[in-house]
Amino acid sequence: MSQITAVELALFVFSRVQSRFFFLVRSGEAFYEIDANCTLLASALRKLREQSEKQGLCTTSTFMKRSIAMPGSFRIGKIAGIDIDIHVSWIIILVLLTVSLAIGWFPQLSPGQSTATYWIVSLIASLLLFVSVLLHELAHSLVARRRGLPVTSITLFIFGGVSNLEQEPKDAGIEFQVAVVGPISSLLIGAVCFLLQLPLRGTNSLLGGILFYLAMTNLLLGVFNLIPAFPLDGGRVLRSIIWKTTGSMRQATRVASITGQVIAYLFILLGIWLFFAGSILNGIWLGFIGWYLLSAAQSANSQVMLASVFNSVTVSEVMNPKPTTVPANISLQQLVDAYFLPGGLRYALVMQADHLVGLMTLSDIRHIPREQWGQVPVSTAMIPLSRLHVVSPQQSLSEVLPLMAGRDVNQLPVVENGALVGILSRDAIVHYLEVRRSLGVENAQSDAHNQPSRTA
Ligand SMILES: [Zn+2]
User: Fold this and answer.
1) Residue 70's pLDDT band (boundaries 50, 70, 90)?
2) How many Å lie between the centroid of ligand 1 and the Cα of residue 325?
3) Does residue 19 contact residue 220 with C-beta atoms inside 8 Å?
4) Tally of domains in the chain
5) pLDDT digits (tens, 9 = 90+) for 188-208
6) How far is CA 253 from the centre of its chain?
7) Which one of 29, 33, 137, 399 is the catalytic residue?
8) Which of 259, 275, 310 is the last residue of a domain?
């Protein structure tokens, strides 16, 4: 067997299984959406840290409203107020697509042209395919914006495109419209291209070749996206339908995610079967897509489940309403002897004449050499209020959790109308969720929260 390089192998795969490539394009999009959710927290935390270093205090809402840009992207323009970004990885796929079209598709479809012609036509066809992907994303984005979901940008990257929606749809109807419009636009573009190329059939026309290529790829994009494998568009459509009929977003997500996983396993099984039936490359490819879909469905499910639990619980439900408070003017030695040791405390809020002035934790005490404990007052060693994040009792856990993770703090003072009303600790959140889970009240409460009209 002759030696082949990785690039030749990649080109071989692309030209042989070009249609299947687009399965990956679309599942890749979904995968990125999941990945974007995962990196949302990390990125939010980074921003939070930068912000809090500058201002000392900040709220979660400011960074939650900002969208997360993919690092390594550059802006090419703006359509209807939506930024269009291109990620550097997009150039790789543009080159690969052009090469596979120039050496495979066009010489086969319209033989007898010059090599230069094939290359130019292939580049045009690849660019037009990305225009199609952009239109698919624009359809999602424009409908989302019309339905009150802010969209800041669309990014084209190695696996296709992604619309950066700032939040999940609030009801089943919106979810359905936003999801279904993407595949519909792809199917429409495909149908229009197919009709346009009909008169050019059999004429060996390169324009006909481009149109036929766009027809096939767009129809595939549309059909593939309608597969009910959450978080693909079709899976979102399925979720919205179940959401509408059952009234429960969580239950709908669970069903859609399980369906997605079943489909993913079918892809994997079919891939294994093809592999052993002798169709090795196709088998590997299909298995890979299945694996991709599987991980996307699983992580989408846990993200949504967690988010809906956190959304449905407020700070007041979890906080300790009677936190231990200590005076600011006592020494560290007095603090340890009178409060921390007898009470087995890990932290205490520091008060000065009924006003919260800071937080004292075990590690803050440890930072001061023991021989100075007698002289150093609590007010010097504590974390002052200006450096503390303060939350309100009405905020949801999903709003305050990034605050905790961001500065690696374990406690947040809870303040209402300027007065201290409690403290929220990481341990208490974990404990609360554990109790909820063991009592099995998760579903009832959060569904009741999502659908106030339904009784739990
Ligand atoms: Zn889509």
Assistant:
1) low
2) 53
3) yes
4) 2
5) 999 999 999 888 887 778 888
6) 15
7) 137
8) 310
Residues 217 and 294 in one domain: yes
| 416 annotated active-site | no
- Check whether residue 268 and residue 388 sit in a common domain: no
Residue 453 covered by a domain: no
Same domain, 30 and 121: yes
Asked whether residue 319 falls in the same domain as residue 352, the answer is: yes
- Distance (angstroms) between ligand 1 centre and the Cα of 175 equals 12
Alpha carbon of 140 to ligand 1 centroid (Å): 7
Which residues have beta carbons under 5 A from ligand 1 (an ion)?
182, 233
Q: Where are the beta strands (DSSP E) in 158-202?
A: 160-165
Please write down the long-range contacts of 37-40, taking CB distance under 8 Å and 24 or more positions apart: 37/299, 37/300, 37/303, 38/299, 38/303, 39/68, 40/68
C-alpha distance across the termini of the chain, in Å: 66
The CATH number of residue 392's host domain is 3.10.580.10
Ligand 1 mean position to 410 CA, how many Å?
39
Average pLDDT estimate for 277-290: 81
Domain that holds residue 323: 315-446
Using the mean position of ligand 1's atoms as its centre, give its distance from the Cα of residue 225 in Å. Answer: 7
What is the model's pLDDT at position 444? 41
| Residue 324 CB coordination number (10 Å) | 14
Q: What is the whole-number distance in angstroms between the Cα of residue 236 and the centre of ligand 1?
A: 10
Same domain membership, residue 349 and residue 297:
no
